[in-house]
User: Fold these one by one.
Assistant:
Number 1:
Amino acid sequence: MQGKAIYATNCAACHGASLQGQPNWRQRLPNGRLPAPPHDKTGHTWHHPDVILIDIVKNGLVPGRTAPSDYVSDMSAFGGSLSDEEVVAVFAYIKSAWPPKVLRARKKVTLQRQN
């Protein structure tokens, strides 16, 4: 699976080889930033529509657009190193790890945001 290999090379160092994120990802570090969240069912990735997730991967967390206006993050921007197809492949890999219950909940969240 192409997405799994791209994830392993570009994302796993922060978000975990098994999508588990960094320890205590909801607790701020001494520098005020949050650790990398998990991308498995325990995280909040599935709460966001694809367009937002793709923007975050390509541009990093941008205050006022994909993050609160005063938010500072360690999330790197991958727009210069990953193609759109590679980013989509990574998300296909991440989504393949989500159980049906999470996929159904994500579909509801996405529909609610569209209305």
Note: The CA atoms of residues 14 and 29 lie 14 Å apart.
Number 2:
Amino acid sequence: MISPAHQIVVVVDDDSQVRDAVEGLLKSADFSPVAFSSAESALESELLARSKCLITDVRLPGMQGLDLQRRVNAAYPKLPVIIITGHLDDQIRQSALSDGATAVLYKPLNPDVLLQAIHVAIANSKEVM
């Protein structure tokens, strides 16, 4: 079994406080988080190909989180995606889940719920790999 420290988790959120908090949480759980402020910068990175999970906000400058999810699904179909949002919107939630998101979590994020969602997403992605 690969230890979490060798598991890259990509975080995309334009809010630096959210990015920093999620990065800190992931580091404390021995993951290797890499954070981006935009979908475009995450897509330009080589890290998505090596990551174990993508966490993205819905509302981003430029490309939106659901569009990022669709692009990632096409390029890396086995990469689990967790959507985070500060807006309770059933249509967004349904769209994200229909497009294969493993979870849709609402801000403020509960650290235990987020870590559990990541562990479940990674475990389920190994089953199909």
Note: The chain has five helices and five strands.
Number 3:
Amino acid sequence: MPCYRCGTRQVDPDRGSSPWLRGVRADRQVLICPGCQSAGDWVADLDRCQVCASIRLVRRLGEVECRDCGYVGESAAAISAADLGASTIDGMTPPGLAEEVEQAIAKVLRRSARPAPIS
């Protein structure tokens, strides 16, 4: 998943804790890279806990959990889907992800594809 602000992709982390932060923005989980964290204005973009106003939220399985106070509530998308009687909550794919996956698969298959031996 890329940084929601600059699009930089996270690479395999070194040992220890990751310098990347997680948050919820517009009811979607996002990552914030170390470079964008130094800008400081990214905090205003994130959703806040309904109980304690913390930005340390995690979204999973249609719920949003606050990492500070432990409050767990349904995400706005889950509530809207329930109101509409929809069977899916979030079928959206981040822009460009499908193309990136397709390119990666093509790259791997080209490397492993070897001509069949002549018999």
Note: The CA atoms of residues 77 and 83 lie 10 Å apart.
Number 4:
Amino acid sequence: MADENGLGKGLFLGLLAGTVIGSVIALLYAPKSGKELRGELRSKGEELLDESEEYLERAKVKASELINDGKKKSERLISDAKAKVDDLLEEAEKVLSEAKDKTSKYVGESKGKIDKESEKLKSAVKAGIDTYKSEKEA
């Protein structure tokens, strides 16, 4: 964007300088009296001044528009980014919650299985001890 502004400014200044130089040379070589020449130089100078003021005013308006557009676009980008971050956080919380639920379920099921197998093992050991005692007594 800065390159475009620099190119436009350089082009305008070159055009302005060429116009001034061309006008002055044309007026100097024109067969007119000094009074007429000074009058034309004055009017040309006023025209150039008016044109440059108009150009500067248009440039100010354009710069203001560009700044406002940039602000709007950046606000929109920030808003979109916040919405996406909120969506991602919400999705991450869902995944985490589901993982916790599944983990709790698996831990509970595994604990139940371990308790069941532990009871079977205790019963088997007790039966083995009882059998050993009865065999020893007999």
Note: The chain has a mean pLDDT of 84.
